[in-house]
Design brief:
Blueprint lengths: L1 H26 L23 E4 L19 H13 L14 E4 L12 E4 L8 H12 L4 E4 L3 H15 L6 E3 L21 H6 L15 E6 L5 E7 L5 H4 L5 H24 L1
Parallel strand pairs: 1-2, 1-3, 3-4, 4-7
Antiparallel strand pairs: 5-6, 6-7
Length: 274
């Protein structure tokens, strides 16, 4: 176990010390001018993995997010750059050179070709009856949905009600470091609380965006009868901001990005192999 912990620490240190300056030069410090938009479908140069983001309808305001575009597109692009560096996954690409992520609405048939579907700022998300039926069908046919970056009791109350309308027969279960997902490749001692870069800067270094109402970062699942995870929820944390804002500052990168990438790699390894 000690050797495994040491190897994990070295791997994350190498990610921070070697990769960060490269991407800081490549990506700059502003939002990118990505060409990927809802309706574009899947990348036209296919690989073994494609990252798909859900473009959903916001039905309420929740905090300082921007609905489905929260953390888009830099989180998506940076993740697709990092995955081939840190794993043996061969990711999809667009023929014009952009990293291979997709933005899909619930009704697009390409949804069923996505190994995972990601949504951020889900405290604003609302499913109508058609959306709920499509997402349910996608999940029961083998899909995986990850909901990230929402904070506090109000956001939890709203989103948990929405997702339970999709899968009413499967309970929401909180998981912790005892679950094997937490040590698939990296040993993750707890769910990291990763604030947005702006919140972290504005609060003087606090990781809880809503103070006492969001003190505890947590991970929840909805699994079928076989134990396969259909839905993963990361609450009171912004895992994808650790990808999006990795070049915000060296302090932010070293403090949050290695943990953010460790979480996503462990999640992908577990869900794609179980």
């Amino acid at each position: 176990m000690l050797r495994t912990l040491h190897v994990t620490a070295v791997a994350l240190t190498l990610l921070a010390s070697v990769a960060a300056p490269v991407d800081a030069q490549r990506f700059g410090f502003g939002r990118s001018n990505t060409r990927v938009r809802p309706g574009d479908g899947l990348p036209d140069v296919s690989g073994s993995f494609t990252y798909c983001r859900l473009a959903y309808a916001s039905v309420r305001r929740d905090g300082s997010g921007n609905g489905w575009t929260t953390d888009f597109p830099d989180a998506d692009r940076n993740l697709m750059v990092r995955l081939p560096q840190l794993t043996k996954l061969r990711v999809s690409r667009w023929s014009y050179g952009e990293e291979g992520f997709a933005v899909l609405t619930m009704g697009e048939p390409e949804l069923y070709e996505c190994p995972m579907l990601m949504a951020t700022d889900v405290g604003e998300l609302g499913f109508n009856a058609d959306d709920a039926a499509i997402l349910r069908d996608y999940l029961l046919k083998g899909g995986f949905f990850w909901a990230d970056d929402f904070w506090g009791s109000s956001g939890w109350s709203h989103f948990s009600s929405e997702i339970q309308l999709v899968l009413p027969e499967f309970p929401l279960v909180e998981i912790d470091e005892e679950h094997p997902l937490f040590n698939q490749l990296y040993i993750i001692p707890e769910v990291p609380q990763i604030p947005s870069a702006n919140s972290w800067r504005g609060s003087g270094g606090s990781t809880s965006e809503l103070g006492r109402d969001s003190e505890h970062a947590s991970m929840w699942t909805m699994s079928d009868e076989t134990g396969r995870i259909l839905v993963l929820i990361t609450h009171n944390t912004d895992i994808s901001d650790g990808w999006e804002r990795e070049n915000y500052s060296s302090d932010y990168f070293y403090t949050f990005s290695p943990s953010a990438y460790a979480v996503v790699i462990n999640v992908l390894l577990w869900t794609m192999s179980h």
